[in-house]
Amino acid sequence: MSKESLVEGMSKKSFLGFVKSFNPHADLKKVEEAYDFAKEAHKDQKRMSGKDHFDHLLNTSYILIKLRLDTETICAALLHDTLEDTETKKETIKKKFGDEILSLIEGVTKIRKIRLETVEEDRAENIREVLLATIKDIRVILIKLADRLHNMRTLKYLDEKDRKSISQETLEIYVPIAYKLGMYKLKSELEDLSLRYLEPEIYQELKSRIAKKKEQRDKEIRSIIEKAKAVMVEKKLDCRIYGRAKNFYSIYKKMKKKSIPFEEVRDLYAIRIIAKTQDDCYRALGAIHAAWTPISTKFDDYISTPKPNLYQSLHTEVLIDKKPVEVQIRTWDMHHVAEEGIAAHWRYKDTERDKKFDRRISWLKQILEWKTSKSAREFVEDLKIDLFKDEIYVLTPKGDPIPLPEKATPIDFAYAVHTDIGNHCARAKVNNAIVPLDHELKSGDVCEVITLKNAAPSRNWLKITKTNIAKSKIRQKLGIVADSDVKKEEEEVKEDLTAKIEGVKASNVKMSKCCTPKYGESIIGYRMKDGKVAIHLSACPNLKDLEDTRKVKLLWKQKEKQDLVKIQVEIEDRIGLFADILNIFSAMRINVNSINTKNTKNKLYIVFEIEDRESLPKLIPQIKAVKNVIEVKTEQD
Ligand code: MN
User: Fold this and answer.
1) N or C: which end of the chain has fewer CB within 10 A?
2) CA atoms within 13 A of residue 185's CA, in its CB half-sphere
3) Is the pLDDT of residue 421 over 90?
4) What architecture does CATH give domain 376-478?
5) What is the pLDDT of residues 296-347, one digit of tens each?
6) How many angstroms separate the CA atoms of 76 and 70, rounded?
7) How remote is the CA of residue 81 from the centroid of ligand 1, in Å?
8) How many whole angstroms from 196 Cα to the centroid of ligand 1?
């Protein structure tokens, strides 16, 4: 059975049986009424696939039924197109199904009957309306996501132009929303479907390559699982282990990011260990690390520091049978939250609609708060950017979480807490250690701002802050009015990359403003009429419209040889120590080449690359400050 026709030909009786099996508390009578009403209202309508429109409604509600959502959501999903596509009146829905269901349907319905100037504007307005309705009731976006998922599953029936633009919108708007809501399963399917229509050749190639080696890979995965199971049994850990297929899109993203062909994408082996308790997760991780060599830089502890979308798991990568294997370790609870995200929380709405639930949509509130006055098009353009920014949570010494954008600094934190604290911020401590004011904060950090009466903002602060609120307060305090003052300053700090391109004179090169390539990213040059070469990212969408004959392949000059530094860290082993140390390296953007213990329990040998020696005096004290680190020594390699 193909995915697009999961409930095709299903009788009403078995549909209701399905509802009951996923949600024993559902009001089946009401669901049946919605079923009958929708079937009648759409009776003459067909989809592009040739199927009845009702098939789309069944499938949309089926996606939500499987997420075990409530009666109102299921009914609204069945009825979600009645106001837009049939003669049904609002009053009729209200009388028959009540206010709650009506407002859910209205939330996903395009309010304007008159089409705006362009299809894009029309869609943009709809997205804004859906998000505004979502603030009032999160179930609106869940219905919209289910609707979109089924539309994506049946996208092949539309013409190419629509397939591409709908897929693009899915990837730019709905995928990041699903991610922010922690709905990984739905997100992965949307990603793969978008890829299928946006890059059909790549998608088909990935598909056939994966299929070709499937038998062998399945065999290898089975053997990896058996080995992991044996290790767990030996440690008396009761857990389930699965092989996990990586979705196509994540493979594609990796290929693109590293500009490598399929053959070189390594970690196609992935397993998931589901343990009974959180303690068991760490014990399982210890057992895995004891049995196989970890690939050092790949360790992540999302249990002690959950992602902003509340995702929790331990991630590591080890070599098993010389193959790099991605391992995720989590409890069943964490597993359900990871697969279903906010839907898992919604189920316990009355007893447990706690702070966590609100935290999941705080990003949306922030986005909507200051963007409602813009035009729909501008709103959606900004939304696309905001959706891709990850949030972090930094704690006050009292433990209150302050949401900030990625790479925010203690100054951003200070202004987020209070303007006065920002204006008098003198120094900052992160996790009890003094840090420079441009220190990059991470989720879970505890930040303490030390204020002094005579401390005041400097112009430099404008360069190191990441939030608009901090920047505007600083500007206010400094009396900078014109935006151009600041822009000029910001431009000055931008690195000049024109001299770093192989084979062309710096004076003949211009960095394009549309995609602003960074050093190391894959680039393409475009010969302009004045003889200069504009440098674009190879993935820059604007390249599509440019003449191929004027494009030139370019490479970056190799980096100068970097210093290899070796340090010896004396430790008293504890759970999480490894990760704490590696986090310091990644926060300072230092590449770790190797970590090993040379068979001693109390020493770590870390080799890493360093671009300028000046960061060393910053790094060492931070490692020393980690709990259970006794001494750090450097040695020259
Ligand atoms: Mn629909």
Assistant:
1) N
2) 15
3) yes
4) Roll (3.10)
5) 666 788 888 788 788 899 999 998 888 889 999 999 989 988 888 888 776 6
6) 10
7) 6
8) 21
Residues 504 and 90: their CA atoms lie apart, in Å, by: 65
Contact 509, 527 (CB under 8 A): no
Residue 396 dihedral angles phi and psi, to the nearest 5°: -75, 165
Q: Is the confidence at residue 493, as pLDDT, over 90?
A: no
For 396-454, where are the alpha helices, taking DSSP H only?
A: 410-417, 419-423
- Alpha carbons 562 and 56: distance in angstroms, whole number: 58
Q: Tell me, in angstroms, the distance from the centre of ligand 1 to residue 371's CA.
A: 27
Q: How far is the CA of 18 from the centre of ligand 1 (A)?
A: 21
Residue 402 bridge partners (DSSP): 394
DSSP 3-state of 570? strand
* pTM of the predicted model as reported, rounded to 2 decimal places: 0.65
Per-chain mean pLDDT for the chain? 83
Best CATH choice for the domain 208-342 from the list 3.30.460.10, 3.30.565.10, 1.20.1290.10, 3.30.70.560 = 3.30.460.10
- 563-634 CATH fold: Alpha-Beta Plaits (3.30.70)
- On the question of a common fold for 376-478 and 563-634, the answer reads no
Cα 142 to middle of ligand 1, angstroms: 12
Catalytic residue annotation: 84-85
Enumerate the domain spans of the chain. 12-157, 208-342, 376-478, 499-553, 563-634
Domain 12-157 is found in CATH 1.10.3210.10: yes
The predicted pLDDT at position 477 comes to 86
pLDDT band at 501 (very low <50, low <70, confident <90, very high): confident
Q: Which of 528, 549, 526 is nearest to 537 (CA)?
A: 526
Quote the distance between the C-alpha of residue 295 and its chain's center. Answer: 23
C-alpha–C-alpha distance, residues 235 and 249, integer Å: 36
